[in-house]
Amino acid sequence: LRNGARDPTFIKSKIASDIHNRLGLPSISANYITLYINDEYMGLYIIMDAYKLSWVEYLYGEKNTTTLINCSKNMNNRLTNSSDNCINENDDFTDLTEWKNFLERLDNAQSASDIEDIFDIDQFLSEIALEYLFGTWDHFPTYGCSHNYYMYKPKNDKWKYLIYDFDADFGQSDILKDDLFKFNDDDYNENSLKKSLSGWLMGSNYNHLIEILIYKDPTRLKNILKNIINEVFNPAILYPHIDEIKNLIKPYIEKEKELNTNGYYPGVMKNDELIYTFHEWDINIEFTTLFDTYGTYGLKYWIIAKYRNVCNLLHLDCDPYYMNDFYFENNLYIDKIKYKKYYECYIKKKSKGDYNDIPVITDENWKKKE
Known about the structure:
globular; alpha+beta; Coth-domain-containing protein; 4-stranded antiparallel beta sheet; two-stranded antiparallel sheet; 12 helices
């Protein structure tokens, strides 16, 4: 169970899992439940699968696998040096020889052909493409936060890269990086994708696998990105699904925001914890950026901005309605109390203590001109 407190939309984990499933990638699934303890309502929760031995048995039919590896701690650039940061999900299996040999092969590889026989590269690049589209910053590729993933090798098959934990995706805690979307027309050339990826990864050469599997030849990643854009990561498909989920959970979200007889929100012991309002939930699912405790783009804004950006980067023939004619208001919503508490360092001190210097996260290039 996940309380979803970080994500004001309460939708990101569900959407990320649904996208994986629509693409047919091995992944976990997500849904919603209401929780009661001793008849006391504790709130709405996200219920998700987990990469465990039971998941492998259910999906692959393999009992008590010895090749499901949990990498929840940060990994260094040289994977072999970080092998002990990952643990085997099978507690009865302690032989790390195969795992370390695999990491050594990855470290020593100079091209995709060096590891094609042991590593599912297309599946890996599909995950990297999704992480790039999601704006992920706490999985394997990104600097300083290389965790929240598993490696799994099915019998008689190749190692696969499996990710989880999506509540920090889709522009969550990332609104000061608005330049990730900003490219002039002259920038849409053969180097544009590398430039965009480099900005996302916070450096172009630190990750060896990214270097040899993408930067040396981005063709495979480009083709995978094109497929994902066409199949699922576009407003025509995602917006109706988001609306469907929003309507499904709306009455439960309303109940989440009601104080109980003891003066607390459901499942909350201290009301000074971060609690998004119903209004913030509603507008952040749409196109409004919240700038408060963590900061997050509007979910639909993130999707259309990333969609337009990648369509231009790859010169795709994308939906003209969503590229040119779809109009929306990209507003900025600020809870001044939360902002002052967590982002006071960004406020220029003024005698009247106003908030006029808060950066406005808007880009007219993403709107239809009236």
